[in-house]
Design brief:
The protein has three helices and no strands. By secondary structure, the chain is mostly helical. It has one domain. The longest helix is centred in the middle third of the chain and has 33 residues.
């Protein structure tokens, strides 16, 4: 696995910053931000799809009910 620290990331950003023309810089920043938002939306929708397919909410409710029943049985 590639491990990138903050220092390495800062160096990469500085190299890119100095190698890009100033008039194109805002365009690249907007493009990167747009790409980041698309990736974030993709992962969010994928997570929601997986949760819906696996019925995560029902499983959580079942686990909660089982734990509650065990607590009630211990109290008796």
């Amino acid at each position: 696995m590639i491990q990138i620290g903050i220092l390495e990331l800062l160096i990469v950003v500085l190299v890119i910053l100095f190698s890009v023309k100033p008039e194109k810089l805002m365009h690249y920043i907007k493009s990167i931000f747009s790409l980041f938002l698309q990736i974030q939306n993709f992962f969010t929708s994928t997570k929601e799809d997986i949760e819906r397919e696996l019925n995560i909410q029902e499983l959580k409710q079942d686990i909660h009910n089982e734990n509650r029943m065990r607590e009630l049985e211990k109290d008796e």
